[in-house]
Amino acid sequence: MSKPREGNPQSVQAEIDALKHKPGALLPILHAIQDRLGFIPEAAIAQIADALGQTKAEVHGVISFYHHFRTTPPGRHVVQICRAEACQAVGARSLEAHAKASLGIDYHHTTADREITLEAVYCLGNCACGPSVRVDDRVLGRVTPERFDALTDALRTQILEVAG
Amino acid sequence: MSIRVGVRVFVPCDTTALSLGADDVAARLEREAQARGLSITLVRNGSRGAAWLEPLVEVETANGRMAYGPVSADDIPELLDAGMLEGREEHALALGATEAISYFARQQRLTFARIGVTDPLSIVDYLAHDGFRGLEAALARAPREIVEEVKASGLRGRGGAAFPTGIKWQTVLDTEATQKYIVCNADEGDSGTFADRLVMECDPYMLIEGMTIAGLAVGATQGYIYLRSEYPLALEILQTAIARAEAAGYLGDDIRHSGKCFHLEVRLGAGAYICGEETSLLESLEGKRGLVRAKPPLPAIEGLFGLPTVVNNVLSLAAVPYILAEGGQAYADYGMGRSRGTLALQLAGNVQRGGLVELAFGATLHELMEEFGGGTLTGRPLRAVQVGGPLGAYLPQSQWQLPLDYEAFSAAGAVLGHGGVVMFDDSVDMAEQARFSMEFCKVESCGKCTPCRIGSTRGVEVIDRIRADEDRDANLALLEDLCETMVDGSLCAMGGMTPFPVQSALTHFSADFRRPADGGRS
């Protein structure tokens, strides 16, 4: 997961130009921008619409349709908890409740220190070893509330080490 | 220059093994071996699919591969002390010869024969294990002959709808067009399923080979793998595999010097369950919102960008190399009734021995859950089983003797779908599960048709009123009515099948809907 960075029109345009020739280029373009900036800035919508000959409303409609795309910067790490049935069968519901209480936030929110954004996900394909959690691009299995806390603590200590 | 090659040790690198610490195991193993002056060659293989044994470490010996598992990094020193590198079986984690472990020995692996055995990205390994034999056979045949072979196999779509694959290919072959496409539906969003992920992460060339054969069969020169964004590792592995297959002449403008061409690209979805529905998927590939299209026209006639398109699931395409290499009849010899070949079953949820089990159609659900699964993880009685993903029915004990066969499941009002088997013990609250089914539909509906979009929202509200004991009988009747409307009036399977888990919960677990308000819940 890329760190959220300040997007400038040039960097967004570079991603658009590299992909706009592809048939059905919109999703690849949105992924490229979000991978680079961590989100899709409002200003990028007009640039994309212009490059693809679409309206801003059409581009906005696509962004808002898909759960993966976001228009505001996430925290430094994105933590997704699997809410699907296989994980429910081994305690995902209580893990979800614990995670929200422990981080003090609900889904789609970011902790006050901007470290962790909490998201729900419906299946990480790790269904025989739930409950499963994805931290950025890493999937973890058999996550207990204790392991969840150790994990999020570790994510938050990383920055202190870097800063220190 | 000669390099002394040490004993080969295998540590899997699929998402599940990694999620349980396989990288730590590999790192510790290398460090300990070095410290002890032992020479090893570490191979990161795919997973054999026994998730309950992961990380499953294997050591190559004169007598074959010996297995140890589940191994944690801290077990490594003891395992080395106990002679793991010689394949000795003194340690408590020693499992003996891998192939003799009954979980593997009792399977009938056609599609998954290679997974976990090979290094997923090694073309040399792939070729040494029958890889590309199907493609070579296809290159020597006319398109019509390839389609006939697939028809002879009896292969039906493994994505859920179970439509005959050969008929779909025939339609695309027979439709004249300047451009045709092969689209692999790799948006495996059903909870309890991970077979596609295993194919892509552990044997990616098999999918590439299957898609290339499909291209040769129907005259398509461009393929897309539409992959869900929840599978970052599969993306990385597929992209590397495609680049290597191109470099080795198995993909591209002149496949194996045949003058035939096929190009392949991975496209990433963006977290929308509905995009697993084939027409939604096509809309998404075209760069639009994933709204379902009304059928007809069929995608085989007007598919991607309005052109003839084969849309097949990963497992359907992955079955094709075997069919071309061994002949359609060899595949059709497995199975029962009109369900031919093998089925990739995935044991998940509250299960002792979860993982992938490939079997010919016809075994019973009970055999699968007991003999392979070993019952529940918690040791409590098994109460309900959801087969076929979030749109599949919850089956009570009276239905566990059902044979795994499309028609048998259909006759019982259930679906086999993508082969996911999610087990729940007796602590499950089925009214809560029914509510979740409606809630999932509410979150994931594409919104195009009213029964699905509005029905799911109302479904959540009605179930909430039932659970709060507000006008319970009237609301139960309303829920039945709502389910019927969704089944009959929805445009696609999302709204049309969401009632299946709900109705099955109402029918077989009605007591859970009649608990006192706020009572009986932990």
From TrEMBL, chain A:
Bilayer-crossing regions: none
GO terms assigned for molecular function: 2 iron, 2 sulfur cluster binding; metal ion binding; oxidoreductase activity
Keyword Zinc-finger annotated: no
UniProt remark on cofactor binding: Binds 1 [2Fe-2S] cluster.
Keyword Iron-sulfur: yes
Keyword set, alphabetical order: 2Fe-2S, Iron, Iron-sulfur, Metal-binding
Binding residues annotated for [2Fe-2S] cluster, in chain numbering: C82, C87, C123, C127
Superkingdom, natural source: Bacteria
Catalytic activity: a quinone + NADH + 5 H(+)(in) = a quinol + NAD(+) + 4 H(+)(out)
Entry-linked InterPro entries: NADP_DH_HndA-like, NuoE-like, NuoE_N, Thioredoxin-like_sf
Family the UniProt entry places it in: Belongs to the complex I 24 kDa subunit family.
Protein's name according to its UniProt entry: NADH-quinone oxidoreductase subunit E
Lineage: Bacteria, Pseudomonadati, Pseudomonadota, Gammaproteobacteria, Oceanospirillales
Automatic annotation (TrEMBL), chain B:
Assigned keywords, A-Z: 4Fe-4S, Iron, Iron-sulfur, Metal-binding
Protein name: NADH-quinone oxidoreductase subunit F
Source organism per UniProt: Halomonas binhaiensis
Ranges for domain NADH-ubiquinone oxidoreductase 51kDa subunit iron-sulphur binding: 431-476
Gene3D superfamilies: 3.10.20.600, 6.10.250.1450, NADH-ubiquinone oxidoreductase 51kDa subunit, NADH-ubiquinone oxidoreductase 51kDa subunit, iron-sulphur binding domain
SMART domains: NADH_4Fe-4S
Molecular functions per Gene Ontology: 4 iron, 4 sulfur cluster binding; FMN binding; metal ion binding; NADH dehydrogenase (ubiquinone) activity
Presence of the UniProt keyword Cell division in the record: no
Cytoplasm in keyword set: no
Cofactor: [4Fe-4S] cluster; FMN
Protein family according to the UniProt entry: Belongs to the complex I 51 kDa subunit family.
